[in-house]
Write a structure and sequence with these properties.
- The complex is a heterodimer of chains A (265) and B (431).
- Chain A is an alpha/beta fold and 265 residues long.
- Chain A has one domain: P-loop containing nucleotide triphosphate hydrolases (Rossmann fold), CATH 3.40.50.
- Chain A is built from eight helices and twelve strands.
- In chain A, the strands form three sheets. Chain A has a six-stranded mixed beta sheet, sandwiched between helices. In chain A, strands 2-1-4-5 form a four-stranded antiparallel beta sheet.
- The longest helix of chain A has 15 residues.
- Chain B is α/β, with parallel strands linked by helices and 431 residues long.
- Chain B has two domains: 271 residues, no CATH class; 54 residues, no CATH class.
- Chain B is built from nine helices and 20 strands.
- In chain B, strands 2-1-5-8-10-12-14-16-18-20 form a ten-stranded mixed beta sheet, covered by helices on one side.
- In chain B, helix 2 runs antiparallel to helix 6, helix 7 crosses helix 8 and helix 8 runs antiparallel to helix 9.
- Classes of the chains: A alpha/beta (265), B alpha/beta (431).
- The interface between A and B is medium-sized, with 30 and 24 residues.
């Protein structure tokens, strides 16, 4: 929901980044205010997943230029865990399997870490169990997933639900969903999208990184950005996604390329 | 290490040995073993089987056999008792401690120390004792047998299922002594039991443990064997276990190595009957200057055998882990199904691991898989945990704990599992 008076949560300016010495991001600009849902679309290799990982602080990416201010803090001053505690959440495109770590143990550790950071009460295992089971209902997840190792042997859809469950527990200020729709059948997509919609409110913001328009039928964005070759080349309203779906990325006319998009007009 | 040192170690021990006074089979066994010990020498890193494990520090410490019995305070060891184990045999410095043991609820098994069972089961014991643990070529087996004074003896009668675990607790109470713990298991046809072999100490200074376990599984017997070595970090521990598996018998073992300055565990499993099955899993968790060497030998001698092995080492600070996993498939052992995995985690740049899977296959219709990995914690896993707010240390500790947890999880006794999980947690400091 767009509200011109709401607070700026994320301000990205001229972001350049390398991975393994190759420049992937070549000047990304983006402003996200509270209450907004942004979709970043683009072909494979356009840099959108790289951008998502940089926001979360993945160590493999080297930022070479630019600034990111998150909620009045320089994001680059914060370690990944500090970003998480400050309210940045990345739902992974490929959630990591961690054999031997029970999902409930992991979820409770994460939840309590963030709670204590926020000066809120931590939960013991029994209290947490009740709490997390409630949250799992939102995603129509079986409690069996609590006793299994983190993501181990989960199907693609189950992994994605487990990501959104973490989002529900950590209540981030800025959630970045990296290709959360990939590998989901239509029922799972509906459940995941419904979960995300219930978690969005006027005080937080969501960035959806996606390939396809289909997720946007369920989570309706306020802005759609098109990324290409490491830059945002076009920004528009939700109708842009439909146009892309209908005409393909080539449809974006040459005039748009080379312009600076992403910054609010 | 000079040859002189090694000689003097053996010389000391040989000299301290008292020639048995009788001509009983047991004294004859001891005397034969001492003859072997006298003819053998201490292994050095020149010996292929000891390449990575320099035991010269041990060679300088010819600790005598513990003579007197030191009292153990119940309060010092009570927390090692396992609630599930209705039977407990306790040995202090290698000597049976009846006041700490409890064999009343034996569920029909014959459980006791050697001297108490000799009058009633002498013939059976004589048939098995010292048969699997061949001392002709192994100096430590020879010494243990020569100094054999007492032993845990367990006979599970045919088709008897002992549902609760039998806990063998070997306590080191004196320092600068050598103890020679021993265990003989005879599992008759179709019997089931779970044996826990547990080494603990109340002390902080150095001592030597030289232990022997012999397990005989008759047709269709099923034995779980959990071995926990939690000596102190000054101790030396040489352990040998030999298991013989008859037709369709099953042997499942988990060995956990936490203690000792230098430790060596040799596990030899001979699948001598058709369709025998063994699982031999291990976890080694060491730090500081510890060295832990595990040598396993799984010998598929008959067809349709199956073996599974997962061996994991977590090596911290400057410690050194060694794993040598030999799997032999003899010409006759067709349709053997064997899988071995050695996974190793190095927590620092100074930690060291030597791992050597060793397959010797002489049959042509077999399935044998093996693999070895040596690595540090996975960076993507660390990042995933950190991206959820966990600190770098917590993330690393959690992953280390999980790495070891996979083996601990295979222990079928929940109170022991809990104890070990607590030890690993304490070492990895997860709050």
């Amino acid at each position: 929901m767009i509200n011109q008076n709401s607070k700026t949560l994320l301000e990205v300016r001229g972001l350049h980044a390398n991975v393994n010495g190759i420049e992937i991001l070549k000047g990304v600009d983006l402003t996200v205010k509270s209450g907004e849902v942004h979709a970043i679309m683009g072909l494979n290799g356009s840099g959108k997943s790289t951008f998502a990982k940089i926001l979360a602080g993945h160590p493999a990416y080297e930022v070479t230029a630019g600034t990111i201010i998150f909620n009045n803090q320089n994001l680059f001053d914060l370690e990944p865990e500090e970003r998480a505690r400050a309210g940045v959440f990345l739902a992974f495109q490929y959630p990591i399997e961690i054999p031997g770590v029970a999902n409930n143990q992991f979820l409770r550790l994460a939840y309590n870490t963030v709670q204590s950071q926020r000066g809120k009460e931590e939960l013991d295992p029994l209290e947490f169990d009740d709490f997390v089971r409630e949250k799992m209902k939102l995603l129509e997840m079986s409690p069996d997933f609590l006793d299994r190792s983190v993501n181990e042997g989960f199907s693609g859809g189950e992994k994605k639900r487990n990501e959104i469950l973490q989002m529900a527990l950590l209540e981030p200020i800025l959630a970045i969903l990296d290709e959360t729709d990939s590998g989901l059948d239509i029922d799972a997509l509906r459940i995941v999208a419904n979960g995300v919609n219930q978690l969005t409110n006027k005080d937080n913001a969501t960035i959806l990184v996606t390939h396809y328009q289909r997720l946007l039928d369920y989570i309706v964005p306020d802005y759609v950005h098109v990324m290409e070759a490491g830059r945002i080349i076009k920004t528009s309203g939700k109708e842009l996604a439909k146009e892309l779906e209908a005409h393909g990325y080539d449809w974006i006319n040459a005039d748009d390329r080379g312009k600076t998009a992403g910054v609010r007009p | 290490m000079s040859t002189a040192t090694s000689h003097s170690y053996l010389d000391h021990l040989v000299q301290s040995w008292q020639k048995p006074s009788t001509s009983s089979w047991l004294d004859q066994l001891r005397a034969n073993a001492m003859d072997s010990a006298g003819a053998l020498r201490m292994p050095t890193t020149q010996d292929e089987e000891w390449r990575f494990t320099d035991i010269s520090p041990l060679s300088r410490l010819p600790y005598p056999v513990a003579q007197s019995t030191f009292k153990v305070q119940l309060s010092d060891i009570e927390h090692y008792y396992l609630e599930e184990a209705s039977c407990r045999l306790v040995f202090v410095d290698g000597q049976f401690a009846p006041e700490l043991s409890n064999i009343a609820h034996n569920a029909g098994a014959i459980i006791g120390n050697l001297s108490s069972l000799l009058p009633t089961h002498g013939d059976t014991i004589a048939r098995y004792l010292g048969q699997l643990a061949e001392f002709e070529n192994d100096v430590f087996t020879a010494l243990n047998t020569a100094f054999l004074r007492d032993s845990a003896c367990i006979i599970i009668p045919a088709n008897k299922s002992v549902t609760t675990p039998i806990h063998l607790l070997f306590i080191s109470r004196q320092t600068e002594v050598t103890s020679y713990p021993r265990c003989l298991l005879i599992a008759e046809a179709g019997s089931h039991a779970t044996i826990i072999e547990d080494y603990i100490t109340t002390e902080e200074a150095s001592y030597v443990t030289n232990s022997i376990v012999e397990m005989n599984l008759a047709d269709s017997a099923h034995i779980n064997h959990i071995r926990v070595q939690r000596d102190n970090q000054q101790a030396f521990h040489i352990g040998n276990c030999t298991v013989s598996l008859a037709h369709a018998s099953q042997y499942h073992s988990v060995s956990i190595t936490l203690g000792a300055y230098i430790s060596r565990y040799n596990l030899n499993v001979i699948l001598s009957g058709e369709g025998a099955e063994c699982a031999a899993d291990g976890l080694v968790l060491i730090s500081e200057r510890q060295l832990a060497d595990t040598h396993t030998f799984i010998d598929h001698a008959q067809p349709h055998g199956k073996s599974r092995q997962l061996h994991k080492c977590i090596v911290d600070s400057m410690a050194h882990g060694v794993f040598n996993g030999k799997i032999m498939v003899r010409p006759h052992a067709q349709l053997t199904d064997s899988a071995q995995l050695s996974r190793n985690l190095l927590l620092t740049n100074k930690a060291r691991i030597d791992t050597k899977p060793q397959l010797e296959i002489f049959a042509d219709d077999v399935k044998c898989a093996h693999g070895a990995t040596v690595g540090q914690l996975d960076k993507e896993e660390i990042f995933y945990l950190k991206s959820r707010g966990l600190s770098d240390l917590t993330a690393r500790n959690l992953l280390t704990y999980a790495f070891g947890g996979e083996v601990i999880d295979r222990i079928p006794i929940s109170s022991l599992k809990r104890q070990l999980e607590e030890i690993v947690l304490a070492r990895t400091q997860i709050s």
